[in-house]
Write a structure and sequence with these properties.
Helices cover 16% and strands 39% of the residues. By secondary structure, it is an alpha+beta fold. The protein folds into 2 domains: 42 residues, no CATH class; 366 residues, Neuraminidase. The strands form 9 sheets. A 4-stranded antiparallel sheet has the order 3-4-5-6, with no helix packed on it. A 4-stranded antiparallel sheet has the order 7-8-9-10, with no helix packed on it. The protein has a 4-stranded antiparallel sheet with strand order 11-12-15-16, with no helix packed on it. A hairpin with a 2-residue loop joins β19 and β20. The protein is globular, with a radius of gyration of 27 Å.
Length: 454
């Protein structure tokens, strides 16, 4: 009896100790939850997917996690977690492939198709632009007059349908661009460039604000150089930057009697609502034969344009010349190098930030060599993105490129090392072209985890 009582006493003591520990932990948890500053510091280090689950803990946690102040603290300088692009030749709702940028990142793709809203046109939804965690989307394969536009956060699954601009202007739309900087404001803007109603050769800007939920005309009509593309843009340094498909600096382009000198492109300072000119870098030298006379033309053709962590990069066209047959020029001594340009934040000029040695890449991945008459005639690769990571002295910046055979490689821009990053999954009819690349060789979009509200 005494022994049994002793055992019961020890068990009772153990339960009391456990109960005390649980009570102490509960008290600590209550103290943490009641101390909002401490709670914020803890939540700032929690993965975003876990934060999404924590929003259902209580109304207080939901309000805290979705507050603009917390969103700003959580991710003031967004960093791309992966790249994605649409598969080729999709007649209906396009599907997307994701390429994780982390070496061991096994996270599933945030989406394969966009079904966050039922588009009334029935052809599905496609991504037009990625900007600091938000996506600008539109009706897929639709005429501009009926097309719907959306802003979507793939992390929080929130979306907003933009009101349509006036019907008489809808068919004159040349491009829609998203401008969002979570460091400056929790609100985003959408820039619409359309033809002027008074002069078809001039352009007019309208701006939509998520704060006012309405469109309004901005500024006066303006002229643009020939081949300016308003469809694809880069948002950087508080400005929407447009690019030109072709550049010939020896010509002057005339619009409505206004003589425009090249080569330059245009950008819009969003807050000031002012269109400015940005001179383009000139790098390549080509020799052409015209009426048996050699004429040297200086031009710049970009094979990649993109922004990463506060830096805007442009890469000159990958050399695809007939090596050894094109006369070398003193300003272009090595046709196996292509330059990665960066523009100064004050727009004072361009400078070569990195050089990509294509011959070095071909030593590791010989499939990029294009042969003609049993000799190297150039290089085949599609540059998907330039990714900046932290400080350059830590060898963190790299280039992502697609090479023949569905491979995606990572090229370190500092130490020149390279590894295979991913292998694409062929989807759809004739996924690869004759060069072994995707048939639609476009740059990839950046997927950035964000808590921003739309």
């Amino acid at each position: 009896m005494i022994k049994m009582g002793a055992k019961r006493g020890r068990t009772s003591n153990q339960l009391s100790l456990v109960s005390c520990k649980e009570s102490s932990m509960m008290a600590s948890a209550v103290n943490v939850a009641s101390n909002e500053d401490l709670l914020i510091q803890i939540l700032l280090h929690v993965p975003i997917k876990t934060l999404m689950a924590f929003k259902s803990v209580s109304k207080h946690w939901l309000s805290l996690i979705t507050s603009p102040g917390f969103v700003h603290l959580r991710n003031p300088l967004p960093s791309a977690a992966s790249l994605f692009f649409a598969t080729s030749f999709c007649r209906n709702n396009p599907s997307y492939q994701f390429i994780p940028l982390g070496a061991t990142d096994g996270c599933p793709a945030p989406f394969k198709t966009l079904d966050f809203v039922h588009d009334p046109l029935g052809s599905g939804i496609s991504v037009l632009q990625s900007c600091n965690g938000l996506l600008l989307c539109a009706s897929y394969r639709a005429r501009e007059l009926k097309r719907r536009y959306y802003v979507y956060n793939p992390t929080t699954k929130q979306s907003a349908t933009l009101p349509q601009i006036r019907r008489e202007y809808a068919k004159k739309v040349c491009g829609m661009n998203l401008a969002f900087d979570p460091v400056k404001s929790p609100h985003y803007k959408v820039v619409c460039v359309r033809r002027s109603e008074t002069n078809r050769q001039l352009f007019q800007i309208e701006i939509y604000s998520s704060e006012t939920l309405s469109w309004r005309v901005s500024g006066q009509p303006f002229a643009a150089p020939m081949y300016t593309s308003f469809q694809n843009c880069t948002y950087w340094n508080g400005s929407v930057h447009w690019w030109r498909g072709r550049v010939d600096p020896w010509h002057r382009f005339i619009h409505t009697g206004v003589r425009i000198d090249g080569p330059y492109t245009l950008y819009l300072k969003v807050d000031e609502e002012r269109v400015e000119q940005l001179p383009l870098p000139m790098r390549n030298i080509a020799t052409v034969n015209l009426n048996e006379q050699d004429e040297v033309k200086t031009y710049f053709t970009a094979s990649y344009i993109g922004e990463s962590e506060g830096h805007w990069h442009i890469i000159e066209e990958v050399p695809r010349h007939i090596l050894g047959e094109v006369p070398r020029h003193r300003n272009n001594p090595n046709l196996s190098l292509c330059n990665v340009y960066e523009v100064a934040r004050d727009y004072s000029g361009w400078f070569v930030k990195y050089q990509v040695d294509l011959s070095a890449i071909s030593n590791v991945f010989p499939e990029i060599i294009k042969y003609r008459y049993n000799r190297c005639s150039g290089y085949i690769l599609n540059i998907l993105s330039v990714v900046r990571r932290g400080r350059e002295e830590e060898d963190a910046s790299f280039l992502v490129a697609e090479i023949p055979g569905g491979k995606v490689i990572r090229y370190n821009l500092v130490d020149k090392s390279m590894t295979k990053l991913w292998e694409l999954t062929p989807i759809g009819y004739k996924f690869y072209n004759d060069d072994g690349l995707r048939r639609d060789c476009v740059s990839a979009f950046s997927y950035i985890e964000s808590l921003a509200c739309v």
